[in-house]
Write a structure and sequence with these properties.
858 residues; alpha/beta; Nucleotidyltransferase, domain 5; Rossmann fold; six-stranded mixed sheet; 38 helices; 16 strands; globular
């Protein structure tokens, strides 16, 4: 991935004054001119005078400045020695401020060398020294540094907590320079978690603040601009990405900072790689490789080395990549789990390309172990993002096992990469947390969730003009939420152990999930240029049969988006695309799928955007005409959904439906059919079994208090999708008391609830959509309901027609009620869809294919 640069508190000073005959003044002047060799000689002249005279202060300062000069020259091992000499002298003299400066310098050099344990220890001691000196500003700065160290060591939870604490302290103390750095590092943190929209907000604010308070700090501005460029690259805005890197290069050249220039080259190389031009990416990267090969800057170097290895593999130079990777591997093992994973993943691919499959297997397994050793932060909405770009070694194992003719073992690794966070929660971690929480703790969590939801709505409304105080308020609330969870885990360590456990899939699970020979599962595993389809069926004796099929991924995402757009635009020429996608994705498993009455699709990556039910089979029919179709995140997730506790049968608490608010919280137009839909759905279940919240009664707090008591939830109102921060997506409910933010129901609020409904029907625009994560699935509203304990949701994949939606929803609920104990949710949706398809007015898939069942559709 692109290098996104954390900002350390180096506090390197620039001096411009008359030197006279004062060697220290001369040394400072030479540092200002970036003549670091000359400056070192001048500082050694200071040492020659200070040591015999017993001038401890001058001696400590000279060693400190020598260390800083060596750091600028990237001679980091020598810099550590110089800083340690300064620290020993300052400590003996009882000079806490000078001791803090020396230890801070040593920490920075150790960080560059990749010695993160030593760096963290130096940082801890520096913080203590600054505290003893009464320097609150530098105490805050050291917290930012320590947060960076914790992240490199794999402690993402500790990193998040310290960064948020430091940001609050910097703002309260008026330490604007450190606040800019804290905001930048929070942007790094969110980017590492895949929340690029949030990352842009933090980088934007950090860059603006830094430009205002320190326009001459060109090295820092260069780092901040290239961070923005990297994040825009991830968001697909290539033009803005190149523009930010160009700004960064101007600043870095003005600063004369070669290390930052190499980081910029690396990030620009990534933009070429994203377009598939790996040879140009390697050419752009080569100066950075040459620089880091001769530099002590090992931490940043290994990011570039891993990129080089990956792109060498993609250009087919496997043997050269193996030689390069094997040379770097011993050093990578000492740099922490993330650096080790980054190197092992492409090294495994290089071994596989070179036909060295045993070595490839070992590399992939070691990479998986490194990923799974990382200590993630406690919040569900942040933990979900971590694995989304780290599926490579799992898919590497899938490729090897398919090659060896072991489809079930390959499927197990595909499963292991999927829905890890969702599995944690479905296994009962959320239920167990609720069990041990006191009423006061539960109320505090509800309050914090509501407040964070309101701020997310405000951030979404502010868009590109995000206010610094809004970000600060959200960070403070997130820190309080993290502290609440951390305290719970400290009191109940067994909860943490439950979350880290992975229960492998066994063949008995397959027999239980499929239920019989009439059902087939097709699970997809897609990462980058690799994709597989696994078809799982049972024979008449109940024995599972698994087959795997490699798929061509070139242009897949574009083809899926084109087809989805054709349907959403009611294009009459959609059938050719529908037939081609069926042939490409399901055609290889045609024999296994023949005569199946139920098909469970488990998509991955861009396939979450594809309405499989509208594909055209070889018989010329839509797939839904031949079989019931529904979706699930993974086999493991489906297994856990089956085990979710359900509400006992209670005829008076069947349906809770909400919608048609009297006043839109988001100032959206009225949905003309919503009130009709709600009344008709309510009539199906009867006045005693259904509660309908419309108009003034369409109130968020009332819905949240009542929803856990009902078996069927129905929401008929506008849904507002936030594509960058999908858990900030929300339903538009009644604006009560003039408080807009208290009247929207966000996905983040829903996932914190404990629901025991059988199904949630989300009759709103595009609520099936979100942001797909490789491995985690489609993150959004349906995902939030699954986490909250509802095993199935009915959601829309595009902006649906209001009138046909009402007909579809009414038909669905009639069919659902006719099933024993409200089972057969996917069958109920199929029957409803077919009733529209057979109506000439609604024959186009736009009208009937927009809604899908996600989760346990049985």
């Amino acid at each position: 991935m692109p290098r996104i640069l954390s900002m350390l508190m180096l506090a390197v000073l620039l001096f411009a004054q008359d030197s006279g005959n004062d060697p220290s003044a001369l040394a400072k002047q030479l540092m200002d001119k970036r003549d670091y060799d000359g400056a070192i000689q001048a500082w050694r002249a200071v040492l020659a005078k200070a040591a015999p005279a017993g001038d401890r202060k001058a001696e400590a300062q000279a060693w400190l400045m020598i260390g800083r000069c060596l750091t600028r020259k990237q001679e980091l091992a020598l810099a550590v020695d110089a800083f340690n000499s300064s620290a020993r002298i300052a400590e003996a003299a009882g000079d806490h401020a000078a001791l803090g400066d020396a230890l801070n310098g040593a920490m920075s050099a150790e960080y560059g060398l990749g010695r993160f344990d030593d760096a963290a220890e130096h940082g801890r001691r520096a913080g203590e020294a600054f505290a003893a000196a009464g320097d609150r500003r530098m105490v805050t700065g050291m917290k930012i540094n320590l947060a960076v160290m914790l992240g490199e060591k794999g402690d993402m939870q500790g990193k998040a907590t310290l960064l948020r604490q430091a940001a609050r302290e910097a703002e309260a103390g008026g330490f604007d320079s450190f606040l800019a750095n804290a905001l930048n590092n929070l942007g790094v943190m969110y980017s590492e978690q895949g929340d690029y929209g949030r990352g842009v907000q933090y980088f934007d604010r950090a860059t603006g603040l830094a430009a205002r308070i320190a326009p001459d700090d060109h090295a820092r501005l260069a780092m901040f601009h290239t961070n923005l460029g990297a994040i825009y690259g991830y968001l697909g805005d290539t033009q803005r990405a190149f523009a930010e890197h160009a700004k960064a290069e101007v600043e870095a050249r003005t600063a004369g900072d070669e290390a930052v220039l190499m980081g910029i080259r690396s990030n620009r190389a990534h933009l070429y790689a994203r377009t598939g031009d790996y040879r140009r990416a390697l050419t752009e990267l080569q100066p950075a490789i040459d620089y880091f090969d001769r530099s002590d800057q090992r931490r940043d170097g290994f990011v570039s080395f891993a990129d080089q290895l990956d792109w060498m593999v993609r250009t087919g130079t496997y043997e050269d990549a193996v030689a390069r990777g094997e040379k770097l591997l011993p050093e990578a093992r000492g740099l922490g789990p993330l650096a080790l994973y980054r190197l092992l993943d492409p090294l495994g691919d290089a071994y596989a390309g070179a036909q060295r499959f045993t070595d490839a297997r070992k590399s992939y397994l070691d990479a998986i172990a490194a990923i799974e050793s990382v200590k993630l932060s406690g919040g569900e909405d942040e933990r979900e993002s971590f694995f989304h770009e780290k599926c490579g070694p799992y898919l590497g194992m899938v490729r090897l096992l398919v090659r060896d003719g072991k489809p079930f073992e390959a499927l197990q690794y595909a499963e292991r990469a999927k829905a890890r966070m969702l599995l944690d929660v479905l296994r009962g971690a959320r239920t167990e947390i609720n069990r041990v929480m006191t009423e006061a703790e539960k109320q505090r969590e509800r309050d914090l969730t509501n407040q964070i939801g309101r701020l997310d709505a405000r951030l979404s409304a502010e868009g590109a003009h995000v206010k610094l105080e809004t970000l600060a308020m959200r960070d403070q609330l997130k820190a309080e939420m993290d502290s609440l969870l951390a305290a719970l885990y400290q009191k109940h360590p067994e909860l943490r152990a439950q979350r880290g456990e992975f229960r492998p899939l066994v063949e008995a699970d397959l027999a239980s999930l499929l239920g019989g020979p009439e059902t087939a599962v097709v699970e997809f595993a897609v990462v980058d240029q690799t994709a597989f389809a696994f078809a799982v069926t049972l024979d008449r004796a109940g024995v599972p049969h698994i087959e795997s099929h490699p798929l061509k991924t070139l242009g897949l995402e574009e083809d899926v988006n084109r087809f989805r757009t054709q349907l959403a635009n009611r294009d009459l020429d959609y059938r050719a695309s529908a037939r081609a996608l069926y042939t490409r994705l399901l055609g290889p498993a045609a024999a296994a799928l023949r005569n199946k009455k139920r098909l469970v699709i488990m998509p991955d990556g861009p396939l979450w955007e594809l309405p499989f039910q509208a594909l055209i089979t070889p018989a010329g029919k839509h797939l839904i005409e031949e079989a019931t179709v529904f979706y699930a995140p993974s086999l493991g997730a489906a297994r856990e959904m089956r085990a979710l506790p359900r509400r006992p049968v209670d005829a008076s608490r069947t349906l809770l439906a909400i919608g048609a608010p009297a006043r839109s919280a988001a100032s959206l137009p009225v949905l003309p059919e919503a009130s009709v839909e709600l009344r008709q759905v309510g009539q199906i279940y009867g006045a005693k079994a259904a509660e309908i919240l419309m108009g003034e009664q369409a109130d968020k707090q009332r819905w949240k208090s009542e929803a856990p008591n009902y078996r069927i939830l129905h929401v008929a109102t506008h849904g507002v999708m936030d594509s960058n921060n999908p858990l900030s997506s929300f339903f538009d409910l009644n604006r009560a008391g003039g408080d807009t933010e208290d009247s929207i129901l966000s996905a983040r609020e829903i996932l914190k609830m404990s629901l025991r409904a059988d199904v949630a029907v989300l009759s709103a625009c595009e609520m099936a959509r979100g942001k797909y994560r490789y491995g985690e699935g489609m993150i959004g509203m349906s995902w939030a309901f699954l986490i909250a304990g509802t095993p199935a949701t009915v959601v829309s994949q595009w902006k649906v027609d209001s009138a046909s939606t009402t007909q579809l929803m009414v038909a669905f609920h009639k069919n659902l009620k006719s099933h024993v104990d409200f089972s057969g949710k996917a069958d109920a949706m199929r029957a409803a869809a077919l009733s529209l398809l057979q109506n000439p007015q609604y024959k186009h898939p736009f009208y009937w294919a927009g809604f899908v069942v996600v989760g346990d559709g049985f």
